Amino acid sequence: MDFKIQKRSIEILYKLLDGKNGITSYVTYEPQKVAFCPDVKDMEELIRATPESQGISSRYIQNLLQELEKEKEVNLHNIMIARNGCIIAEGSFYPYQKQIWQAVYSLSKSVTGMAIGMLIEEGKLSLEDRVVDLLKPYTNSITYLKHKSLTVRHLLTMSSGVLFNETGAIADDDWIRAYLESNNKFSHGTQFSYNSMNSYLLSAIVTEICKMPMMEYLRPRLWDVLGIHQVYWEVCPQGINKGGWGLYLTIEGMVKLGQLMLQKGIWHGKRILSEEWVTQATQKQIDTGEENGYAYGYHNWVSEKEDLYLFNGMLGQNVIVYPEKQMVIATTSGNDELFMDGPMVDKIQEYFGGEWMPEQQMEENFSDYQSLKLYEAKLGRHREKSHIVSSANRGWKRRRISEIKEREWKCKKKREKQMEWFCFVKQLNGICYKMETTRGAIVPVFWQTVHNNYSEGIQQIRFSRENGKFFWHVLEGVEEYRMEIGMGVASIQTIDYHGEPYCIAVTGMLAKNEEEITVLKIEISFLETPHTRMFKIFFETEEEIRIVANEKPGKLLIRQALNSVMDPEKAGFIQNILSKLDPEFFQYKLRFAIEPEITGKKQM
C-alpha cells in the first residue's frame, strides 16, 4: 500500500513539475465547499475597548502594525489583538476583510484536539484507548498487528510514526484504510513526526463514537456556545471532516477559540472544556526535535522559553495565547512559511513576548487611540503611494502647501490613468487570444493540490466591456470564467471553480516595461484562502500576447522541495527519489510549474 500511494504521489508531482494540466486525480473530486454568506452573522461579538484601558499603549500597537506592514516577507491579511477578553486592535489589509472566513489549514488541529477533550470529559474516550479498538470496522488481522499499540495519545502528540501522510492523501480515496495499512517508521510513541493524518484519524474516531461528523458534534458544544456561525469544515471522500486541515474561520472566531483556552475552558460561566484538559493540551507532552523553541502538547504548539502556546496553520494562520499577560493575538496571512518560525511571529514576539508586561493602570490617550483607529481604517482601503517628499519637519504653511500640491498631483495622475485605462479597455473590447500551449490556471498550483481541484489549463482569453466595466474571460477546458477587473481598485466578486464558489478580489493595472511594451497586470486574491494569483499580460505586437503567471505564497514550494533534496532521509521514499535530482534543475522545474509562461495569438 505504501509503495502504491507513493508511486501515485510521484506521478502527480511529476505532472505538476512538468507544467501539465488536466491532472487525473486519484481522489474522487466532488464539489463540497459552500459559498461564504455575508448575511450570516456571528451571534456575539467580543467587547471592544481602548488599548489603554487594558494597560497597553495605542501608539505601541500602531508601531507593531506599521512594522508588520513594512516587512517584505510578511503578507498579513487580518490581525486581531485581545486582552482580558476585549478586542483592543484589529486590522484588515486591503483587499481582505475581517468578516470573511479564511482557510486556516493546520490551525484546524487545535479544534480537533478540543473535540477529543470533550469526548474524554464525557467518558466516551480515554488517552490510552487503542485505535484498532476504536476503529474496529476498518481493522483486519494485518492492520491489528501493525498498530495494536497505537493510542489516542500517540495521535494527539504526533508520535504515531505511521508513514501515510498528507502526500498520500492526494493519492488515495480511502484514507482510514490507507493509514491503517501503512507501515511505521518508528515504534508508536517514541518520536515526534508531524503528520496531519493523525488529526484526520482523530476526526474519524469522533465520527465513529458519535455516529455523526465531528463538525456536527461540535456545533451545539462549541460553535453555538461561542456564537461562531461563520464556520465551515471540509470533508474527505468518505464524508469525514479532515481534522488536520480544511477549517474556515473568521479572525474573530479564531480569537474566541484562543480566549476559551485562556479562560481554562469556561465561556460566560459555562464550562466547555475541562480545566485539566486545557492544562494538559497546552503544556509540553513531547519534544519536537526542532530548533524553533517549541514543544508539542495535545495538538497545540507550546513555547519552551516562556508562558505561551499557539494554534498554527501553514502560511501564517495563528492564534497566539499569552496566559500570564491575558492576551490573545490572531493572524491570517499568505506568508512563505510552513510553521510559526517566520518574521511575522518573530515581530509579534519582539513586542509582546519575553519580559514585556502590560501596565496595571494607564491613562486614556485619545490622540493616540484616534491615530490607531485611523491607521486601522487606512489598512483596509486602497492607497496609492505618495510621489512627493514628506515635509513633516517643515513649518505648517509650507506643509499645507505641500499637501495641496500632492493632492493636485494625485488628482492629475488619477485622471491620466483613467483616460489611459478607458482607451485601453475600448481598444481590447471583443478581442480574443488563443493560447499556443495549454498551460497555467487562474488558481494557484499550491491551491489546486491542497483542494484536489485541478485546472485543465488556459486555452483562450478574451476581453469585453459591459456597462462601463472591464471583463476578462478565461477558458479552461469547457469552463469559461468571467471576472471583472477593477482599475487599480479591487473588484470583489464570486467565482465558481468546478462547482466550488470562492470570493475573490480582482485588480488590474497598466504599465510599460523597459521596451515600452504595454503590460496589463492582473492580481486575483482568493479572499477565503491565503493564496493570490498574479498575471502579467505583455502585448508584444498587435497580434500576439505573452502571459507570465505567478502566485503567492509561491517560493515556499521551492524552499520545501530544496530542503527535501538536501535532507533525503527526512521523509522517506519520495525524498530519496528527489534527492537524486540536480537541485538547480529541480528548482528550475518548480519555477516552471509555479510561474508558467504562455503565448497567445489574436483570433479574427
UniProtKB/TrEMBL annotation:
Which key words tag this protein in UniProt? Hydrolase
Q: Which residues form the Beta-lactamase-related domain?
A: 78-332
Which InterPro entries does the annotation name?
Beta-lactam-related, Beta-lactam/transpept-like, Diverse_Enzym_Activities
Q: Which GO terms label this protein's molecular function in UniProt?
A: hydrolase activity
- A Pfam family name for this chain? Beta-lactamase
Q: What is this protein called?
A: Serine hydrolase
